[in-house]
User: Fold these one by one.
Assistant:
Number 1:
Amino acid sequence: MSDTRAGFEFTRALRTEADKIVARYPEGRRASAVLPVLDIVQRRNGGWVTTEMVDAVAGYLDMAPIRVYEVATFYTMINLEPVGETVVEVCTTTPCWLRGCDGIVRACEEALGIGLGDTGADGKFTLREVECLGACVNAPVVRINDDYYEDLDPDRARAVLAAVSRGASPPPGPQTSRAASAPASGPTTLRASAGSS
Amino acid sequence: MPTVTIDGLEVEVEAGATVLQACEQAGKEIPQFCYHDRLNIAGNCRMCLVEMENSPKPIASCAMPVGDGMVVHTNTPQVRKAREGVMEFLLINHPLDCPICDQGGECDLQDQAMAYGMDRSRYRENKRAVTDKDLGPLVKTAMTRCIHCTRCIRFATEIAGVEELGAFGRGEHMEVGNYVERSLTSELSGNIVDLCPVGALTSKPYAFAARSWELDATETIDVHDAVGSNVRVDSRGRAVLRVLPRLHEDINEEWISDKTRFANDGLRRQRLDRPYLRRGGRLESTTWADAFAAIADRLKTTDGDHIAAIVGDMACAESMVALKDLMTALGSPHVDCRQDGAKLETGVRASYLFNTMIAGIEEADACLLIGTNPRREAALVNARLRKRYLAGGFRVLSVGPDLDLTFPVARLGGGPEALAALAEGSLPASAELGDAARPMLVLGQGALARPDGSAVLGAARRIAERCGMARDDWNGFNVLHTAAARVAGLDLGLVPGEGGRDVSGILEGAGDGDIEAVFLLGADEIDTDGLGDAFVVYLGHHGDAGASRADVVLPGAAYVEKDATWVNTEGRAQLGQRAVFPPGDAREDWAVIRALSEAAGHALPYDDLAAVRARLADVAPWFGAPDEIWPATWGTFGADGAMDPRPFASPVSDFYMTDAICRASETMAACSARILGNNDAWDGAGARDDGADG
């Protein structure tokens, strides 16, 4: 990492947006806003933050730069290196793994032509594995930018990626006929099976 | 107070104590890595697990507050199994490089693995490797060894007050390091080497120098500043290999500054190891007898009124009392221990002591700094001020230079103008100080070492009196010294006598030819060019400014090479012990002066150390009572005169380069260059600094 401190300052628009976030927290607790502020900075910078931006966030929130950097490296949602326009994250933690995430990883790699952790030469896609996305009930799960695509199998994963590649936005959520996280094998409670409300 | 039962033993502990503290109170040893009683509790190493009744699983004792009636077991099969398990996890990624690790032999992980770990490993996979970090010229890193206890991060953040260390990444990829690779900017950074329970952070200058069991430890006192930090000097043969802190709650707690810890390589370089005599403009080595004869010859033809003596900043009390007695015998009133020209007086002892005491800072509730930068002049006093600030309800005001002290300081002004206003009570801050229950002020040498120093001293006294700092139950008037020798020098009366000249007067006299002979006792921080044609005798341990100007050089002992007494800025006399012998022909300073006195025909009446110490106690009783504080009574001191409007400046511009030992130290030169950017101090010693990384 370089030691240059020049280069990034909060624009007026960014500051206005960040001020709104800081206002959610009590007086003297500006540091609480570190994650959402990092997030808006990242969104305005094509999906990643530079060292200079970390410094700027630290300055804006009255934090030591190192404390912001700790946060930025802890959370996988904050990228410290450039990423593709679309970030595809495959969950490979135990529940997804039990439900076949290995096949999803292969399908993604084949569909995008890149391996885990890589960004395509055209800068369109970044593919990586992540730890639990917290949607185990709909495992296996892939996160594409801000949306979760759930109940995947390799074919459904390919279909979703094909649609995203075309520039479409396939509806997020379960990619089967299942509604949200309703029981996959149909209703299991008496009231539901009796058809009453 | 809650009562808890530890292994069947009932102990009463303070409310708010942790289970770990209760266990220690009950005499049970609890293994630990992340816990440190001077740092915040992290609870992340899990080594301190104990069994608590009614708890389904073992608890981390360091983070669990005691509750009344708790029943804790520290040595059950469950506890032993838990410790073994934690140890096994800690060792998964810890390299098996103890044979090449500098921590070997004094490593908490090694010791606790022996005591509490399993006798074999079940781990067959690859260990992780972590890139080493560059923390500057003092702290060497081997981050693969790090067990993520976060002690170093907490020390830097809480005690040193520099948020420069952190933990990056998460889970197995977590790494401890700095944000951008650059040197730590703390004067206390070396303490993280002591805190590190493994070999991840070790001393860079000491790298691969010795094993802990090969060293002889000697307990002594530091002289690089006037704090009087208690240190342990580890030596092998004639070499001092490292300096470590020794616990003294009232002075340095368990920390020392980087200068105290790392300047020891200066003890090996540029040493005076034999007497020298100037012949034909060149210093040539000679014998003690010839050197003394040359001095005696000169003294015989010189009247006492034309002889003067200047005492340096590291002189011990023994040598100073001998010098003072010799000068009295020679009939010279021209003696001064205030090299920097500080206008300190000897009449009222309270006028030159840190009366509140260093530990007393914790009781103060407001502090006024006058012409001082405690961070550079006395890093541990600054650490105590920060500790007090963190406890809350402590306001620090300053008249003097712009300061970055690791805590907020309200600057009232740069110089005497603000001081005069405070003394008159015409600043809002005077009321603020006056309203405080226990206000204190710290008067630095930067405010006193000026022609108007007496007036500044007087103004500080008036502020103290106006703001309730000089009460029977509270003395908030403090002088912060930078020289280890200064308080003892003032105690022993090494100031000009009747009609005597001070340092500037001596230099002036030497220039005029009025002063014909000058004795320098380790005095290197004076303008040696001003000594004119005077006959100069230098007694000291380093070939620094004083020796290079001298006509006769007498080799003395550095602080680790003599049994000697120093009085710190609080007025606390402390005994140092000899760790190694002085090099070559060099001798203890008081003995040199004693021998010289005989050669000069004025033999001093003491022949051994005990007799010199008796003489010291005779002059000032506290020399006979080491480590005791003798309360000093208040009086009137300082002058009323006008003050020069020039702003105050701290006398220490480069923390790492304040005395002859530091100036001879490659490590200190590297610090000065890499941390402060003072490249003139740098003469390419970096090869050693960078090349030594194994």
Number 2:
Amino acid sequence: MENKLIPLNCLPIGKKARVKELKSDGPIRRRMLDLGLITDTVIEALQRSPSGEPVAYAIRGAVIALRSEESSKILVEAL
Amino acid sequence: MGLTSQSTGASVLTNDLVIEHSSDEKIIALAGNPNVGKSTVFNALTGLNQHTGNWPGKTVASAQGKYRHKDRSFILVDIPGTYSLMANSVEEEIARDFICFGEADACVVVADATCLERNLNLVLQTLEISPNVVVCVNLMDEARRKKISIDLEGLSRELGVPVIGTSARSGKGLDNLMDAVYELAFRNASSLQESAAACLQINYGEAVEEAIAVLEPAVKKILAGRLNSRWLALRLIEGDISLLESMRKYLNLDLLNDDNIRDNLAKARQILDETGIETNSLRDMIVSCIIKKAEEISKKTIFYLNQHYNSTDRKIDKILTSRIFGIPIMIALLGLIFWITITGANYPSSLLANLLFSLEEKLTLLFTWAGAPDWLHGLLVLGCYRTLAWVVSVMLPPMAIFFPLFTLLEDLGYLPRVAFNLDNYFKKACAHGKQSLTMCMGFGCNAAGIIGCRIIDSPRERLIAILTNNFVPCNGRFPTLIAIISMFFVGMAAGPMQSVLSTIILTGVIVLGVIMTLLTSRFLSKTILKGLPSSFTLELPPYRRPQIGKIIVRSIFDRTLFVLGRAVMVAAPAGIIIWIMANINIAGSSLLSHCAGFLDPFARLIGLDGYILMAFILGFPANEIVVPIIIMSYMATGSLLELDSLSQLKELLLDNGWSWLTAICMMLFCLMHWPCSTSCLTIKKESGSWKWTGLAFIIPTLAGIVICFLVASFARMLD
């Protein structure tokens, strides 16, 4: 049973997901990898900023805020 | 365009990374992720024995300091805080280059105990380059509080290098750290080899390992022990161009000129091609392997006794960055700081003023007793001393209160939340969310804020942040704003409402500054600095319990006294010059009056008068002296009175034709006019061109003139 892949910015707050694919490339891709966003990393959407963006995510024990420009290029499988 | 941080190329073939040192001094590199207390470790070890500067040819700050341990000298070099050594940014490139070519005897990697898995990424990357590493797991006290248990010995076994737990803020574990560094730096060749063998090696999978094995012997031959050949072979295979450039620069070695290497590199790439691994996916694989290794190690050595160890932080975040309360709380916090500053500074300010001005009388008596000529008394007492007395009595108390409060917010970890709250507005202005952090730094000193813009990676957005930093009033302008508010706008309200009202007005002025920043950023993004916002990632570090005592000491000595000292240095000569200008008479009136008279028609248009505008111009070296200049020019032309309270000052101003409109325009112009000379020089240094400096000068000045003109015209229409 394979779950449908959704872009990370569509993941509801409070939900966890598994990273499946990075669609960005170049320096942004490398930055995302450095944050630990490799395949099968579990990530949780924690909190929206007051104006809705960016969103803070729990990634490998750290809290990182991403804008939708970046998070829409991370495909995840909701858990 | 002055946008590149590349130097002029004069440093070609000289290894400017090698730190000057005598033969019995050991060089220790200090690496680590940002926000892990690296600078706390650095300060704790080196104390005041440090000096700061820039990395050669780069706008990245460097710091080195000395310490002694067991009768040996060590030079500690603070390399930029980074998450990785893959050279994705200037900081990462410098960090990597220093570890590779800086000829350090050992490298200390500082890691955050409360977030160790993520920090292991950098540790593992460093170990690949050099086995001479000590891992310093800092913030052990915080980890204990969060019930995170770390098996330091197990971690040391896994990594194959010493691991030391520290709580640098309270100084715990630093002796052990220095012991470990000492042993590493002074061991003999055989134990050096042993440790190199014990050091952890990451397995990148069959195909990649095979490719490395093909290339490594050729690399090893040419390196002759200078770098880790396995690591370098892998970098060659993945095609790391920036490393090749660095090798040419620091080792005068062009690897691709070597036939042996070229042949074997082709073979290695072929192996990967056959297994379907292309350059892009190879990079992913390498990073993935490192991260998986970090995950594997942390599973074995880190134990979370409380699964919800972060829940308090999350709860605080839910409030401080909530949709409804996030921004009101932020403004309220800012207001609270201002309120405490205004209320708290009131009493000591008048006390200081009384003291210093009564001293002026004594000085006058002394001068009369000594029979000093009038001009000398005027120059030194009425000019120099009076300006100094004003600057000290008006600046010192607010600064001594504001800086510790602000440092407290910084230490708590609140500032990144400010950036988080405001990022969307900055994004809409096509600017970077971290610009709000550089604005916070601007509250202390705009020059510091401008240097702080280095935290923004993208050159376009960094330039926007530099050009607009002046819209945040620095502490040189704060006291002016506070004094005017207290004199002109709170007289109507009585009692405790006074300070609340002052706070609201001051906060309003700051918010106006923020709005101007956003508008200007957007304007720049749509015109001369066209471009889309670049990628943005912002870490929200764990909240930390601040150390009140250290905050007070640090903010008083590092900031308050430093800033005050600089203001005094400028104020003393400025006082003399202004007194001379006010007392040299040409054709019946003073030089100052002539200049002011010339400026007056224009100044009246924007709601000011010639003397005020003159004061802003003469205040170019430092904004702190603007008000003293105004006072002195009025006093020189009008009746001389004893000036030791704000109400007397208000009378003086009213006598000279001030109205509430003058006060408003004065505040607006104080918020928006040219940056002080220090800021201008800093902008030149950071942007690399006079063109941008000129723009940074013109933008706020134009904004101030236009807005003051509109306000003044509007008010006149109402009259």
Number 3:
Amino acid sequence: MICDECGRPATIRFVETVNGEMRLMRLCGECAAARGIGLSFAPLAGPLVNMLMGFLEEVGAQDSVEVPEPACSECGLPYDEFRRTGKLGCAVCYTSFEKELRPLIRRINGSTRHTGRIPTSAPDDVESIREVRRLKVDLERAVRGEEYERAAELRDRIRDLESKRSEGGDDGDV
Amino acid sequence: MGTFEQMLATQPGWLDASGPISNVVLSTRVRLARNLKGVPFPMRADNADLERVRDRTLAAASASNYLSDALVLIMDESSQSKREILVERHLTGREFLRDSPGRAVVIGDRELVSAVINEEDHLRLACLRSGLEPMDAWRLVDRLDTELERNLHYSYSSDWGYLTSCPTNVGTGMRVSVLMHLVGLVRSNRIAQVLGSISKLGLSVRGFYGERSAALGGFFQVSNQMTLGQSEDDIAYMVERVAGQLVTLELEARSELTEKGGRKIEDEVHRAHGILTSARIISPDEMMVLCSSLRFGITEGLIDSVDLATANGLLVSTQPGHLKHFNGRDPGPERRDRMRADLIRRELASGSSA
């Protein structure tokens, strides 16, 4: 069983009801947690930042392998300040604090890869990213229309394109 | 667009109840967070940086079709009461009440498109629509973004997408918010359960003017939590779908209330209307409760002497900052309550197209 979100081994199976339609989902523990499955959410919980900060505390508490970079190499933002305010100082902070940010962003979004709009000035990769985006919209439609064979086909094409992208790109989704 | 005073004299286009499902959905807002390449985010930028960002963005806005005629407000030159009005009209966040260099707002026709400069991010573009219109609002703000992009280079990574000051916005930088009037679900005590379940679908809920307004009148803003991993189309579509579900539940709750409540509900709605058209002192809290009942009465066909746009308008025009501005200076809370009652009577006397 493979996670529908990230393609890693899935451990949780559940049925999601959207608009009265049932849909079977398979997720790994992390993606399930990111979607709030198995967690209880207060309906009017405080700002997202609280959740985010709580999570950062958790990560901090593990205190396992590496001590976080003390500050951003570009703008000098101390990591502690980000923990306090929830705000980053500049674009390079995303690289400086990548190890800390990646699990956090996955937890919020269930993903760590942008599949949306691309600036017109962005050079490479653009076409394959756009293609994936189109395919995902088609996939959604296929699932809603209960065309499962077509949905499976589309899913495979999306995975294919996405794996090609990550091979050429960074260190991937770990 | 003209002056600040002209803007105030016109109702924001997103409150005019002309859009789809206006009986439950007041408006839809889509905003995009953007930052300029090579400049620290506003919190860590120095004054010279902030002013450069402002000037470059204003130049790009005036070269665009959507914002070339827009009203430009430089915050350093804007009074506190003007700033409060911007917050109450949902044009800026509360953060803009504080002094900080390089801040500006660009406001398009009828406040349907806007650009906020140097708030949490260098640039926040917003498009608002009356009723439930996430797709439409997204397409419009996307066109504006594309226009601005010709003159602005954004901070972007192919992995993370658009880079934002807060990692909760990274990726698309997109937040779709639907402003809903869920009075039926509140009254039938189903609201907590319903909102609890939508948080599991990746949406978050806030009050229109903070949590209190939601508790008082049943005005909620429902928005997407995730900004990365899905395309903008998907996000807009997801919010539309879930909001649509909420609309169905709300309409069921309303017709149940009207059927079961009968004369009692009718009486309550007309009492609210009676107080609004007659009272001489109305507090902000009371206003929220009464306005909620009035809207409910209009949508259920119990009141036909007031139209929805007028009822919607009261939610904004009776806010403290607006009353202060009309008075020239802050009259204090007690006198504001009197001004509020006067304003409501005037609006309701003239406010009907029926």
Number 4:
Amino acid sequence: MVETQDVQNLRQREKELKKKKIYNNVKLFFSNKRAVFGVLLLGLFIAMSALGPIFYEYDHFKYFLGPRIGMPTEEFKLGFDEMGRDVFGAVIYGTRASLAIGLSVTLIVVLIGSTLGIVSGYFGGITDIIIMRITEVVSIIPTIPLILTLSVIIGQSFSNIIIILGVTSWTGTCKLVRSQTLSIKQRNYVERAKSIGASDAYIMVKHILPNVFPLIFSNIILTVQGAIMSESTLAFLGVGDPNIPTWGQLLRSAREQGAITTGSWWLFIPAGICLVGLASSFVFIGYGFDEINNPKLRRR
Amino acid sequence: MSIRFILNRLFYTFIMFIFVVTLNFALFRLMPGDPLTMVSKEVASSPEGRATLEHLYGLDKPMFQQYIDYLKSMTTFDFGISFHYKQPVINILGDKIKNSLILGIAAVPLGIAIGIIGGIIASSRHGKKTDVIITTSSMIIYAIPTFWFAMILLMIFGVKLGWVPINSMVTPGANFLNNMEYIKDLLHHLIVPVISYSVAIFGSYLLIMRGAMIDVFTEDYVLTARAKGLKEKQVIMRHVVPNALLPISTTVIYSLAIIFTGAFSIEVLFSWPGMGKLMVESVNRRDYPIMQASNYLIAVAVILANFIMDVVYGYLDPRIRIG
């Protein structure tokens, strides 16, 4: 089929508009100081998790590298824990654990949440009712008791913690995706695709998903933060994999060692600062995207 | 409010209740380990002893009968005997719920109020310096783990300055001459947990309230109110705040409904003898009767709260019950 000049022009114009929109959104995002700060902060942590272990010359699992709960020294800037392990190394490696947890949980959340949300919103009717009732039930059950119960059943290994956090935190994303799907399926291009015989699956994957995605982006970013925070709380409560130390576990053992009363600040201040830093970077970025999608939030 | 709307919600509430309660039954059949050895190792080691225990806990009956018995015992609050305490679960829960309520009632409404007021202030100065300061700081607070914040407070005010006790609810082993002394001691122990708990809550409320307010500010009726010549303060208090409170009201009801479940990390950190700490300990001790009973109580509370939320929302916002 030969496209007429008009069609080609239209396509060209469409491409330009798209480019311009992306450019505008990027400009908008970077005009938000908090968002820029969040990106820089996140970059710092990514660098720390990627490069830290390369430059780190000790074994952070090695016992009695120094004295028990030893003060920081010239060489070991963050001192030692109750087993004489280097705290600095544990903090560096904790970045990897936290990022891994945040991203994998979010992946599960996005998979479950967007699949159920799109199916629910697109088909409507009884499918919608059933999916939304299930979502409602899961969303009102308080997470921590549910997670505690599940952790006893399936165990507390690193991957199990990720799975548990994933299957308990998808409801918000699902509701959001559903509501966006409801509005997108009314649009002309969906009607057009239907009229030329596109299948439901094709429309959901090719038309709805790509258009829903930008709208839930800030929710996705905040899910990463939520997962990192939930994991640290769980670790503090004693649910976690001892083989992969996270910042939350460092805080827990600091508390168990009575670091607060003895004033051994190196056991809990650095890990806590890292946790707040990483979590707030996602909050800043997430709310930055929120302002792009929701023009009302921008400064008047 | 139509009866039909309420009946409809009641029906869904009932379905939800059955679903959650059944889940609670099923989950505890999937628990690893032999529960009988947790009751008593000696008795469970002999075959006769096992049979007696199985009979006592009704485990010799068919699964369906067990389910019916479970439903019966849950609805009559007969939760059985704790593996760890060797006492009826209901006796243990009562005290713990009371302790969690003391902490929660002092902290949760405070946190919600600060969050809502902060959200109103920030949104009414949208984009100005006050807003930037309030919003940025609550975003950071939102990203601070509650227990870590509490640890810092403890280190400063409990250890360095010695102003507040560092754990438990009342001074251990203290003899109180009268109730006033007891309350004074309790309040002294409450200060830091309440501050950290309410700080943990207010960040998210502030951000939600601010977003809701900003949303309402762009509505036409706000423009009308301004055009009528109302003062900005009147516009905010009469027109914007009530409408912004609407979406947040359900979250408030929900937070209040789960006050009794306690603040997990705070209770553990301060050795506060409440529900949160009990549930964490029961998980570590594999004390299934306590876990199951707490899960049940929480489920009942949130499902009831959900029903109330629906009805209140339908009452406040007619679009819901008609549409």
